[in-house]
């Protein structure tokens, strides 16, 4: 790595409403290298990438491309210098075709449909993608959409490609395919930056790794100089021992299930799904994205009210059918959403008000006035119990880290004292330290005798927490494993084949 | 929850900056009008401003609650006229003031509940549902009660009408008392009741409110019935003062625009979840002073409309500048 860096960020800082997202970070990217950015949520990884891609501008500090100082007013300026960013939420226009998306923003005044399509097809083929350029972008899976974005970068002759958490929503096979592609791009001389939460990806695929913490640069160096423990130490500051939850021997199962679902059908997503959940157990549901797990859960709690085509649901032996979540919550079933920002928390409200609203939903009774004292004690109790940080001074939840936000959503549900909680991807977008805590909360909740359904696409999480593992595929449960017979291979095999 | 900080907190808090600006502009206008416009600072004019802004303020109390829940009620002016029509009909039929008020309140509650049903159960967008119901209500009442006329008289000599225009205490008219009562009731609803907390939650994130098990449907009914009843009170005050119910307020007037102007200028964002009583008072104060001053300066109504429109545009632009969408939607986790 003796060449001059293609990109150099020199002591850059970025402040959002006075809060530093990035502080005095200096970062070099060399031509043709794969550079991993590691760090907890809120460490400043995305901010650093956004500066390089011209999405935002640094508050202080300078950016150089090929040794020449630049100041990008918008992403287009960065694109013209050969820098492309692939976002977490992909930025394709769903109503346009793959080919149209690939030339978006660089169309000539007169575009020949055929020429555009051929150019797109050529790039796609050279990268070995099996995507039809005439397909609508909206009909593609997450993985394919990401690949189209990468192909767009190639078509635009990008020399630097930034991938923001590219593997968050991918299956293991798709992840392998993605990294093949990354290597291919590297061979063409493209430099890549990727952000990842999975430490193995950084260790196995990157040439160099940079670790950020709280907006500051912790370390940077060749990937071979790091191991898992060292990486975690840099990310969170002290050694966090990642141990499997220590659970002792399997308990005797309660005789009757708390929840029983039979032949649930809804639209095209849920096909004759049947399963049971026992109290005191974590029932893990593994499966690929789109296997109908979340959809089934949303039907059970009454979140989805239309398109129910049939099926029966029993709670403690009593048949139920909810048409609104408030009914399910009154009966003690809570659903912790997979997308907390979309339908999980109230982002302009304080932690205490969020938790209070959860409590009010179930326990308001016939009261008209706000029971302020009671709400304060409920909120204090759950904030302490779940160790939610950053709630000082009634700060809105939107300013909390991902992990603390997730804890707020969980606290809001647990304050309802439910007997069954469905956790849908509870550690998605959550920092390493908080992941362990959230897993402890889930495990502890089940140990207190309640029923838990854990929907997760992250196999180690399912294996670590579950007493029983169900595997969903195409809207139905295709396999069931007891805790000691489940392995990653067997679950994957059932989920895919 | 408790917004006990002063208005000047806005200088430190970006979200409050608009409020501070509006407050400063209002004070500046009062100062300028007092110095340059004859009769503005007169004692009589103050009570004119108060009683003229009462109906605007009461309507804004209803609209503010709706907008904080991230809804919109375009039917309030139609409901206002419908309420006054019902009252006038009852009074003409010989009912006493109290009985007529009960009947009117029942009718208006039904209208509000229908609005709410369309929004909460049929799940129509609030803007379309209330726009349509405004047309239906106006048409229905003109057809059924007025037989196509646009005026219905309220005999000022009738005791049921007289009481609405009288003074409760010497120098304190019913109108002013009704305005204070509406403000107080709105404050209690928003700050002290569980329903108020649910209203903020719905405005902040409706899907989360529903998924948390909050009673979003009953509260939606409360919200739109609240707005309808506020409109009814405003309607009774306006038409008893003028001695007639005038349906042209719905079709020709800019009252609905003024109400939205008050709410937005006061600093209640249309995306909901924020704002409170202070914002309503602030918005009403600015519009009332502006209207009164311009009238005293003999500015034509057309010119007044132009000025009000420009003021709204500036307010929205300032609000957008202070709270740009990307900071609003970015979470710290995304930084």
UniProtKB/TrEMBL annotation, chain A:
ABC transporter domain residues: 7-239, 250-496
Keyword Repeat in record: yes
Any one Pfam family match given in the protein's UniProt record, by short name: ABC_tran
Keyword annotations of the record: ATP-binding, Nucleotide-binding, Repeat, Sugar transport, Transport
GO molecular function, one term: ATP hydrolysis activity
Keyword ATP-binding tagged: yes
InterPro entries: AAA+_ATPase, ABC_carbohydrate_import_ATPase, ABC_transporter-like_ATP-bd, ABC_transporter-like_CS, P-loop_NTPase
Record-given protein name: ATP-binding cassette domain-containing protein
